[in-house]
Design brief:
The chain is an alpha+beta fold and 319 residues long. The chain has 12 helices and 12 strands. The chain has a 6-stranded mixed β-sheet with strand order 8-10-7-11-9-12. The protein has a 4-stranded mixed β-sheet with strand order 3-6-4-5. Strands 1-2 form a two-stranded antiparallel ribbon. Helix 4 (67-83) runs parallel beside helix 7 (193-199). The structure holds magnesium ion.
Length: 319
Amino acid sequence: VRRLRDVGEHAWLATLPRRLPRGSLAAGIVVGAGDDAAVVRARPGRLLLTTDALIEGVHFRSGWSSPRALGRRAFAVNASDIAAMGGRPRWALLAAEVPPATPVRELDAILAGFAAAARRDGARVVGGNLAAGRHLALTAALVGEARGRVVTRAGARAGDGVWVTGALGACGLAVRRLIAGRGGRLPDPPSRVRAGERLATVASAMIDVSDGLAQDLGHLCRASGVGAVVDLARLPVAPACRRALGAAAPRFALAAGEDYELLVTVPRARERALVRLAPRLGCRLTRIGRITRAPRRVALIDGTDPRRSRARAGFDHFR
Ligand SMILES: [Mg+2]
């Protein structure tokens, strides 16, 4: 096995330019990977910038994903933040901290997965960095463009509907099984770039579900100065999660993290437009509740047990 310490940082980096796109006018790349910095040509308008890291021992453990899937994930968690603003990813950078004993083909696979996920979302890898470290850590930075409206967390108003894309709980369940030593792999985050761009035309506020729906809805409510009511019975729970947890699945899915779905609020006046565009999102969209006036309070309706839904009025994660 050829390991990174046998090959050396500079020799590995020297192979990058032939694996990544150079100049490509279509992709807006004037100078690609291999020089001191990349040069891109942005359209007039607004750029969205974000960065996020995957650190071994913090965000994942060795063996939870294949190297290629880990590369895809490093891109996807960043693309999710761009999608949650209504933007489209264009250019990506990947800084990898890698233990010297890592097989070279693992690092190759990480980069290949990262580049493939970028291409699928319409972005290109234009550079990065490689450093030796004790743990594997992948830090990506992403530049996106907004063609239409940019949507923040701060626009939700009382009466708006609360909607969520896709289904929740699959990744949380996988993590639980992995930690318990029952095997499996982390599921790939979904790509919601197209959905985000379309939802941005009708949304009052939007956020991606990375910390768990309950947490992230709390972030949105805090930014908007509002509260929310969520109907637990309406939550779109991932089939695997429902099979494994039965009646406990909705509450689990509410708190489980890393689903990377989009949580979006839509004013009543735009609901008809939302229904019209829903078939073109590329994923399901479910109404799970509504925004209320009660500042910062996220309450829960437990339709499975109406007697308890009032007495145990859900939770307030700011407490
Ligand atoms: Mg986010």
